[in-house]
């Protein structure tokens, strides 16, 4: 049994928070570059150019890519042969608190009813999962809410099938217009139960942008949804063009015979995600 | 029309506009035109709106005279030592829709954020001769370079949602709703459909 020091967890999460805010990962940068090269609308092409310039400035000068540095969503994958000596959840929360404060990031978390800001950007949303091995993998997804607010979930009748799924997901993304800061990455969770579908949709965003699903029929479904969204022609920030979405990632899970839950979690073009393995 | 104007050097081609707007400038701007803003503007998002409208309801004076001004929907990241401001891109505007008509009735000339406005806000803009601009969502680092001065005006306890006064230079935006009632998002959609 490998023992992991909670102080190491705190320090790792702190660093992930600061790095995620200012440095986009190669997967999203490559996706934006590819979108610029295939964009047919001159205005959308210009806007993509500006977004790439923005990420350059952010990384060089360590200014957050976007002022919405998000609510911190943390996935912790703990190996069965590893043990954190102490409170793993508290260690993650402390890392988020330190990262947002020391990194000059925006405190964007408040009481849902009184709307009073906690001024620490905590609590983070933490998902724990047990996996093989003796490591601890921490994935941080600072989630901006322009895109989060445009997400949705529908309990479709199984008879809706693939056409129903394609229609629901594409209509939701198109209806969101420029609100979620397109070009977006669309996380889709299909199956399981109500909450499982939502979790799958979020987890789908952890996959490198544009990497197709392992199962061929799922990858085909991803391509079909992406094509329908982009045919609508909303383009970058709703200014017209053929890049409304960069990618659709679908994760599936077996569902009840009576049920076809479909959840859609939309991510903006400033798709910030970082991970580390302890 | 305006679509062609965006083609080459983005910033060089923008229409230069000085803030606060004059009624003539406001009336001259058309949906779809790209502008470069320089001068003074005020900021506010969810909490600022909630508080401003609460003050109005109680008959209290507002901490700032909004007549003729531009209200920018932004909650910036804090400035690091030596910086004017942190990242400062737009937030989604529809969340302010329920408050906007009251502020427009006071004489607020323009608002700026991202995303479409409600029918009620569009009606109020037409009635009051106000406009709505969108700037580049998710370009907070780039836009911070256009902010030359930042000053806290009110609601410091709201943290990032406080009301600030910015002095901007060459701040890029697109006119979405003009005084004639046109909506650029709709125009783009119609163009696609035709």
Explain this structure.
The complex is a heterodimer of chains A (278) and B (194). Chain A has 278 residues and is an alpha/beta fold. Chain A has 8 helices and 10 strands. Chain A starts with a strand and ends with a strand. The mean pLDDT of chain A is 97. Chain B contains 7 helices and 7 strands; from the N terminus they run H-E-H-E-H-E-H-E-H-E-H-E-E-H. In chain B, strands 2-3-4-5-7 form a 5-stranded mixed β-barrel. In chain B, strand 3 (70-72), helix 4 and strand 4 form a beta-alpha-beta unit. In chain B, helix 4 runs parallel beside helix 5 (119-128). The longest helix of chain B is centred in the first third of the chain and has 12 residues, at 46-57. Classes of the chains: A alpha/beta (278), B alpha/beta (194). At the A-B interface, helix 3 of A face helix 3, helix 6 and helix 7 of B.
How does the SSE layout of this entry go?
The complex is a heterodimer of chains A (about 280) and B (about 190).
Chain A: E1 2-4, H1 6-22, H2 26-38, H3 42-61, E2 71-79, E3 82-84, H4 88-102, E4 125-131, E5 136-143, H5 145-148, E6 152-156, H6 161-175, E7 184-191, H7 194-203, H8 216-231, E8 245-253, E9 260-267, E10 274-277
Parallel strand pairs in A: 1-3, 2-4, 7-8
Antiparallel strand pairs in A: 2-5, 5-10, 6-9, 7-9
Helix pairs in contact in A: 1-4, 2-3, 6-8
Chain B: H1 2-5, E1 15-19, H2 23-28, E2 34-43, H3 46-57, E3 70-72, H4 100-106, E4 110-113, H5 119-128, E5 131-134, H6 140-144, E6 147-154, E7 163-177, H7 184-193
Parallel strand pairs in B: 1-2, 2-3, 3-4, 4-5
Antiparallel strand pairs in B: 2-7, 5-7, 6-7
Helix pairs in contact in B: 4-5
Largest interface: A-B, 48 and 46 residues
Structural class of chain B: alpha/beta
Helix content of chain A: 25-40%
Largest sheet of chain A: 4 strands, mixed
Mean pLDDT of chain A: 97
Distance between the termini of chain B: 16 Å
Low-confidence runs of chain B: 1-8
Residues in helices of chain B, as a percent range: 25-40%
pLDDT below 50 for ≥5 consecutive residues: which ranges of chain A? none
Question: What letter string, H or E per element, gives the SSE order of chain B?
Answer: HEHEHEHEHEHEEH
The largest sheet of chain B has its strands arranged as 2-3-4-5-7
Shape of chain A: globular
Order of helices and strands of chain A: EHHHEEHEEHEHEHHEEE
């Amino acid at each position: 049994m490998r023992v992991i020091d909670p102080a190491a967890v705190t320090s790792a999460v702190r660093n992930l928070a600061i790095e995620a805010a200012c440095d986009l990962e190669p997967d999203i940068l490559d996706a934006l570059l590819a979108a610029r090269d295939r964009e047919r609308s001159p205005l959308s092409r210009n806007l993509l150019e500006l977004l790439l310039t923005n990420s350059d400035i952010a990384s060089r000068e360590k200014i957050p890519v976007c002022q919405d540095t998000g609510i911190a969503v943390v996935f912790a994958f703990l190996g069965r042969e590893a043990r954190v000596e102490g409170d793993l959840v508290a260690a993650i929360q402390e890392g988020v608190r330190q990262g947002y404060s020391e990194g000059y990031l925006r405190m964007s978390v408040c009481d849902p009813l009184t709307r009073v800001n906690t001024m620490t950007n905590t609590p983070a949303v933490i998902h724990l999962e047990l996996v093989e091995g003796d490591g601890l993998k921490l994935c941080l997804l600072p989630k901006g809410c322009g895109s989060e607010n445009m997400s949705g979930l529908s309990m479709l009748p199984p008879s809706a099938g693939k056409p129903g799924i394609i229609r629901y997901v594409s209509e939701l993304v198109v209806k969101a217009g420029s609100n979620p800061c397109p070009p977006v990455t669309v996380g889709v969770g299909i199956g399981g139960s109500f909450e499982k579908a939502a979790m799958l949709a979020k987890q789908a965003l952890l996959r490198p942008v544009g990497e197709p699903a392992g199962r061929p029929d799922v990858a085909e479904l991803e391509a079909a949804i992406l094509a329908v969204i982009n045919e609508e022609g909303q383009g970058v920030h709703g200014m017209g063009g053929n890049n409304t979405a960069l990618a659709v990632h679908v994760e599936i899970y077996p569902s009840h015979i009576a049920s076809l839950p479909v959840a859609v979690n939309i991510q903006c073009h400033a798709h910030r995600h970082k991970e580390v393995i302890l | 029309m305006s679509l062609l104007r965006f083609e080459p050097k983005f910033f060089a081609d923008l229409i230069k506009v000085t803030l606060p707007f004059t009624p003539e400038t406001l009336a001259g701007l058309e949906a779809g035109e790209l502008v470069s803003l320089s001068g003074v503007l005020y900021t506010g998002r969810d909490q600022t709106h909630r508080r401003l409208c609460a003050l109005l309801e109680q008959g209290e004076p507002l901490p700032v005279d909004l007549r003729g001004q531009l209200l920018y929907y932004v909650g910036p990241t804090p400035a690091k030592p030596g910086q004017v401001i942190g990242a400062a891109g737009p937030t989604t505007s529809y969340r302010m829709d329920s408050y906007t008509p009251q502020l427009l009735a006071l004489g607020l000339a323009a608002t700026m954020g991202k995303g479409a406005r409600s029918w009620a806000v569009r009606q109020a803009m037409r009635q009051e001769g106000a406009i709505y601009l969108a700037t580049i969502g998710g370009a907070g680092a780039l836009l911070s370079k256009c902010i030359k001065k930042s000053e806290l005006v009110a609601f410091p306890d709201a943290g990032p949602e406080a009301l600030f006064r910015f002095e901007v230079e060459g701040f890029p935006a697109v006119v979405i709703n003009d005084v004639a009632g046109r909506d650029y998002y709709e125009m783009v959609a119609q163009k696609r459909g035709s």
